[in-house]
């Protein structure tokens, strides 16, 4: 589902011999519909998540769950009625069993997951420090998930190539083997005609902006749908194309430089910058560039123009997982062959459900619940 015009095979040439994707009248390649193909394949590290009741050094109670950007998206899609497969590696431990059991309970196919006897399942601690501030502590170095190999991805594609391959920028940052697995997945997607969705999801604790940019720029020509926050978008731009951060280095996330330099015209300048950056990416072969703007909603860019969708007004409870919920909503509408306007509408709706609920994925809505967001305060559904 991209905004590229049909150029008579030009896209196929750009993608290094990828299976041809027939273009619809709108210029978007159609999603493959062969019987037996799951809607979405995603893979990465899912950890056991412990949520504290206050500062960790003071002890107290903790809630046990799981968390991982890719599995959050998988759960969001499964609740919306899609056929989803998750591949990854967990330890041969009780924590790994919790991960797999939870995903199975959400209707996700985990038959392609691997159990690593030589490494533990990763751990994630959430520490609410202030009413609006939560600290996150990762214990994932040397984890089973970080030792993910290309063989796991190969088996997942061999079982049945997906209609959509969903990747994040987290997985290649985990280790060289995880990077190789992600790169191999891109090649398999090209070979099998799967549409590729990439959520940048930059994590400064895993790698530097320069390291991320080096890999993401390499991947961009293979991406159909790119999803990023406004400060992540420069990581995907060609070197020297602009978007420098405060240090003068391209792709240094951490805030809108335009807003700092020009407070009187910040909104206009930021919109113009995003449009310019999106055009560069569209010209490189990306079909659709979707920019998450937090409380300001989101904007989708295609060769046909841009479309903005304001955020849904909800009482914020926990913003963790909102971006993953947004991606699940967008991909869900894409799989339903909806236009960008409906993709954005569903994405901001699922994102709002996440913000209004505690947990990474627990508040993800089912399809029948999507309309609840517009109910007036105090509504009781009987």
Tell me what the structure shows:
This protein has 382 residues and is of the alpha/beta class. The chain has helices at 10-14, 69-79, 94-105, 150-159, 171-174, 176-192, 209-219, 257-261, 266-283, 322-335, 340-355, and strands at residues 40-43, 47-52, 62-67, 84-87, 89-91, 114-116, 123-130, 133-139, 164-168, 195-199, 225-229, 288-292, 298-302, 305-309. The chain has an eight-stranded mixed beta sheet, with helices on both faces. It has a four-stranded mixed beta sheet with strand order 3-2-7-8. Helix 2 (69-79) crosses helix 10. 47% of the residues are buried. The model is unreliable at 1-27 and 243-262 (pLDDT under 50).
Class from secondary-structure proportions: alpha/beta
- List unreliable stretches of 5+ residues: 1-27, 243-262
Gap between N and C termini: 38 Å
Classify the beta-strand content into a percent band.
15-25%
Helix content class: 25-40%
Mean pLDDT: 86
Tell me about the biggest sheet?
8 strands, mixed
Oligomeric assembly: single chain
Global geometry? globular
Strand order of the largest sheet: 4-1-9-10-11-12-13-14
Number of strands: 14
């Amino acid at each position: 589902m991209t905004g590229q015009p049909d150029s008579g095979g030009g896209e196929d040439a750009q993608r290094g011999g990828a299976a041809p994707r027939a273009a619809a009248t709108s210029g978007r390649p159609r999603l493959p519909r062969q019987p037996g193909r799951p809607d979405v394949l995603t893979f990465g590290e899912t950890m056991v998540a412990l949520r504290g009741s206050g500062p960790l050094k003071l002890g107290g109670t903790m809630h046990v769950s799981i968390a991982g950007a890719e599995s959050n998206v998988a759960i969001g899609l499964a609740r919306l009625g899609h056929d989803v497969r998750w591949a990854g590696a967990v330890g041969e431990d009780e924590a790994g069993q919790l991960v797999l059991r939870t995903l199975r309970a959400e209707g996700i196919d985990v038959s392609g997951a691997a159990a690593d006897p030589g490494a533990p399942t990763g751990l994630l601690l959430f520490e609410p420090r202030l009413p609006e501030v939560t600290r996150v502590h990762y214990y994932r170095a040397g984890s089973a998930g970080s030792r993910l190999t290309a063989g796991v991805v190969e088996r997942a594609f061999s079982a049945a190539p997906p209609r959509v391959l969903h990747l994040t920028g987290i997985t290649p940052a985990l280790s060289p083997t995880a990077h190789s697995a992600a790169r191999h997945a891109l090649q398999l997607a090209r070979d099998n005609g799967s549409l590729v969705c990439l959520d940048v999801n930059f994590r400064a604790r895993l790698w530097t902006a320069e390291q991320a940019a080096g890999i993401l720029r390499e991947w961009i020509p293979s991406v159909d749908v790119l999803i990023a926050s406004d400060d992540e978008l420069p990581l995907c731009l060609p070197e020297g194309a602009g978007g420098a951060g405060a240090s003068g280095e391209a792709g240094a996330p951490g805030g809108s430089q335009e807003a700092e330099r020009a407070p009187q015209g910040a909104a206009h300048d930021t919109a113009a910058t995003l449009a310019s950056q999106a055009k560069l990416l569209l010209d490189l072969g990306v079909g659709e560039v979707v920019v998450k703007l937090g409380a300001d909603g989101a904007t989708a860019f295609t060769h046909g123009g841009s479309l903005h969708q304001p955020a849904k007004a909800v009482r914020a409870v926990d913003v963790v997982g909102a971006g993953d919920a947004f991606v699940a909503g967008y991909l869900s509408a894409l799989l339903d062959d909806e236009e960008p306007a409906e993709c954005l509408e569903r994405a901001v709706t699922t994102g709002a459900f996440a913000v209004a609920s505690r947990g990474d994925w627990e508040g993800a809505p089912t399809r029948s619940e999507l309309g609840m967001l517009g109910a007036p305060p105090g509504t009781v559904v009987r």
